[in-house]
Amino acid sequence: MVKIGDSLNPIRFERISGESVVVTSLAGEWSVVSASEFERLVAGTPVDFDLRRELVAKQILRSGNDLFDQHMLATKMAFRYRNIAAMCGLHIFVVTLRCEHSCHYCQVSRRTSNRTEFDMGSDVAVAAIDRVFESPSDSLKIEFQGGEPLLNFDLIEFVVRQATSRAHSEGRRVDFVIASNLALLDDRIIEFAREFNVYFSTSLDGPQDLHNKARPRPGGDSYERAVAGIARIQHELGRDRVSALMTTGTESLKQGKSIIDLYVSLGLREIFLRQMSPFGFAARRERYRRSGGAKWIYFYLGGLDYIIELNRSGKQLAELTAASYLRKMLRNDIGGYVDLMSPTGAGLATLVYNYDGDVYMSDEGRMLREMGDKSFCLGDVRAKSFSQLLSHPTLQRAVSDSFTWSSTSCHRCAFEPFCGADPVYHQATQSRFAGYKPISDFCGRTKAIVPELMRRYREDAFCHDLFESWADL
């Protein structure tokens, strides 16, 4: 029962399926109550003892001890944002724009394989390494992207050797990831990856016909090379040394189960049912519009259901969109997925060093530049220190605009603690950093997915345990 002196802390709430209302605290803890229970809470009339105990523990309901409740809420909020001070753990080196693939939805507007003027030079690489080790994070990750980064593998070798030496001398950890289509994987690359514990991330859109159509290359064998590369890395380096992600095109919408089955058959433990981003060739050809919005949400929720059933039958596969939301929902953590961070992870969690020396707040910010918009460029890596890059007015504005709990579009939304801001996405789609969230697909995805995750977590004991494991990925 509600006791004398109980009252509600500041909350956000929204009616979801049926007669249920989700209530969230300022620290992102949540509960789902019936409409009648919510009415009693607002009116200050008695509720069930177990419900009261849950709401007090989550600082949704304030007991008579105001000072203790306030301290607990403040502590949880501080814990939620604890990792912001360890800025820029992820550093992306765009070592070339060249690529031998011609993907229809390429987000970076790749260049042909003979255009070496789009390769990063050693002077840019050396300056970028300096910026990496000026960042305060003890755990660093360098990711090589393109184009196809293996077309400039000599530079990758140079950066890995230099960064490994620096990390050893400074007592810091540095990990390496190559984001590649794996078509150029050979013995030299495998042996180098073995020596320096390099990981690989690749693209796998689905079965052979779908993948080859979406990612054409000379010879028409992009699928065969990707699958062979995945198998080789798993066999020679270890199962955990390669991951894959897919991009949802118009053809993908019809093949959700076959895409998921492929990942399971290849022994991959994770899948990212990723919506196409509104950058590069994807935006120019309007493929983003034809495969996004409600169509993608329908595809995603069907895929999530199928993945849950596969896990129920003993086949282990995690879905990373859900995992990103669940980390925020179940671990009081803003998470590590840049798109879903608030304040923005662009510039705070990651920096991108382009082949020409320009530094961008995120990979998507670099992609936007290829469309003619340099809004997220912070300057030249050879001319600015790490602290100068982070004090750039553009980054300060983006951070200010991305505190969702102070946004006029977000601060009353019950799903705000689980969403993000993504100023790059909103600049690309609405030409302003903050965006107007009621018409944003970004906002719509969160409002569609989070209630479904809540429902499954609460109503299905298997999903409860499964989601708990995904939250720790």
Overall structural class, as computed from helix and strand content, comes to alpha/beta
Number of helices: 19
What's the overall geometry?
A: globular
CATH superfamily membership of the largest domain: Aldolase class I
What's the CATH C level of the largest domain?
Answer: Alpha Beta
Per CATH, the architecture of the largest domain is Alpha-Beta Barrel
Low-confidence stretches: 281-286
**Beta strands, count:** 16
Mean pLDDT: 88
Main β-sheet description: 9 strands, mixed
Radius of gyration, whole Å: 23 Å
Cα distance spanning the termini: 38 Å
Query: How many domains, in number, for the residues?
Result: 2
Beta-strand fraction estimate = 5-15%
Kindly report the spatial arrangement of strands forming the biggest sheet. Answer: 12-10-9-8-7-6-14-15-16
